[in-house]
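pinging the channel bc i need a second pair of eyes. not urgent but kinda urgent?? the chain im working w is below, pasted from the shared doc
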Amino acid sequence: MAGIGYGRQRQADIYLAGVRGEKPRVPQSAATLEQQAERAMSKEGFAYIAGGAGLETTLKANRAAFERVRIVPRMLRGPATRELGIELFGRTLPAPLLLAPIGVLEMAHRDADVAVARAAAAEGVPMIFSSQASRALEECAAAMGDAPRWFQLYMSTSDDLVRSFVSRAERAGCEAIVVTLDTTMLGWRLRDLDLGYLPFLAGKGIAQYVTDPVFQRLVDDAPPPERGAVTPGAVRALWRLARAYPGSTWANLRSPRPRQAVRTFLDVFARPSLNWHDLALVRDATKLPILLKGILHPDDARRALDEGVDGIVVSNHGGRQVDGSVGSLDVLPAIAEAVGGRAPILLDSGIRGGADVFKALALGATAVLIGRPYCYGLAVAGESGVREVIQNFIADLDLTLGLSGCASLAEVGGELVEIT
């Protein structure tokens, strides 16, 4: 794509395909993409992925924050091509994009995390494996070859399980550990509550756990599950769990172990008492870079650096945890000032296009995490859908960079945006 730049080449490919009567499977519009994903997914799956906490005002705040930032293009600078690459923890990346950890991807597509892993590897963009994955991290790593990947960690109530997850991530070639801070409990998510649906109870999104030897020992030690009332709904739930759990469906129907594993997961998944001192557990378990995800206050960013953390992810969990929270982009400038260049700052929550990436970089981010858009691409077109979403983001960023008068990301700064 050298010569005319990534964005123009991507445009040319789409328009030339149009001459042959071919249209992209993945819509360019974020809103249209979400609508198509909703049609492709079950109502429970879409509610889980698309929904936010409470009245979803934090979802709205994330988008409103980006809409308040306006790009101020500069003219007559003539960048014929743009350099989009960055270096992050010793790895050169083709663009300042990573795929955010999203749990229970099987609700979007049967190939789930493995399809995303292949797409990320093909585009050279790091994927952050989720603790709540539908496919084990080892399987995803095998699908990626030597492509970059990280691991997102929920701090379990079991220290041994935390150590085991981190050790597995290291052996699978993950290059950083991202500790999520803002999900010590599940937020009050109205869409899921109205449907009475939590995927983990159906055995979905717990692949990292059921493939872990420490977790299996915890299941061995757990008391047998209580027998509930036999109702048509309970029978359907048991059937879904038996199909989702590893092994023979018929054997799982006769065994209490799948229900025991789900009960154990619910007992150990979250650590409501999580505090700064608990981070020592992760640091002692690995020499990999550690990033804290969920930072929204400058004082927490300063404390993180004081604790020896290697990077910050400014995030409100895509609006899924606290209703009425600040938008992630709103707090980015203050956090960037507090960090003062001492560590990389990544940002997620609300990013829907390349211009959003540009705005985040201008306000102090080193890179961004893409979340729901790639999940929607997965729902619409599987692996190729994820690839198209990545390509569209990079193309949009490349064109925005050039049209704003910048030849590289190093030229993107606060003077190119204004906040209204």
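so Residues 203-268 form one domain. and The chain is about 45% helix and 10% strand. — does that match what u expected or am i reading it wrong
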